[in-house]
Amino acid sequence: MKRTTIAALLLILPGMGTFLFFNLYPIAYSIYLSFTDAQIGNFPLEVTRNLAFTGFENYVWIVNDPGFRNAFLWTWIFVAVSVLTKLVFGVVLSLVYGSKWVVGKPVYRGLLMIPWALPLLFSVSIWRFMFDPVLGPVNILLKSFGVSELPAWTIEANPAFFAMVVIETWLAYPFMMTVITSALQSVSQSHVEASIIDGAGYFQRMFRIILPIAGKPIAFATILTSAASFQFFMVPFIFNSALFEDRFLLLYGYRKGFASSIPHYGRAAAAMMIAIIFLAVYMYVAMRITRIQEGSK
């Protein structure tokens, strides 16, 4: 083996070791726990070592649990609604702030990056106050418009779910806008000018020239943000974790392991493994359908 090869291996070993320890080891250990009866009383292993192998019993229990099925369904509903909202906002804002008629675009774009700059805990706390049923500006505004039955955003599941879509859109649209803006700017102006000469209108140019050319970067950003929406956890956890146990899959798994009356770590690990499998399948299918791996061909 060449010295340069040995030197390269020595340089990447610390990073590779860190990656394996902090990424693959927790996954492997969670897989192990999902096939055991690990729960309060016989776990962690420092207390006792009598974990019993239960096969697929935890997986069967999770799949048959109505709470899991409900969380699984609502998670995909959230992914569909939030991703569509983020995509629409990203495209519209990119077109608006990419227009030559808008003055002070750098300032506006800087202000629109604020959700990225703020700590998540601070952002969610502010939004929780915004949606406060009594003192929140949202209900005060609705009341001023004559709405008599004001939603209990922080107490009732359905209004709170809508609030989650709003918060997720606000947190994620800077990413979508940044990617979409870059993709739109990569479209050659010669194509646009040629379509104008041929008599194409604004919407014809947009849907037949610009968006198809910029489609793959936008599709890639959509896949990434949909995966992030599937893993939605911290926002509902801070907002009101008990309210969303049967609405978000990762929160369901967390509460099974750490917030139930009798924490069952094996079942929680099984729920997380099912989530990982579905997310991996979704990512693979989405990448195959959009053919992103083929590049810009």
Protein architecture, described:
- The structure is a single chain.
- This protein has helices at residues 3-34, 57-64, 66-97, 105-112, 114-117, 120-130, 137-144, 157-185, 189-197, 202-213, 215-230, 234-240, 249-258, 265-290.
- Helix 8 packs antiparallel against helix 11 (215-230) and helix 13 (249-258) packs antiparallel against helix 14.
- It has a single domain (24-294), classed as Orthogonal Bundle (MetI-like fold), CATH 1.10.3720.10.
- With 297 residues, the protein is mainly α.
- The model has no long low-confidence stretch (mean pLDDT 84).
- The longest helix has 32 residues, at 3-34.
Proportion in helices: over 70%
- Would you tell me which CATH topology applies? MetI-like fold
CATH superfamily: MetI-like
Shape: globular
Largest sheet: none
CATH class identity: Mainly Alpha
At CATH level 2, the architecture is: Orthogonal Bundle
Number of domains: 1
Task: Quickly give the structural class.
Answer: mainly alpha
Strand content: under 5%
Query: What string, H for helix and E for strand, traces the elements in order?
Result: HHHHHHHHHHHHHH
How many whole angstroms does the radius of gyration measure? 24 Å
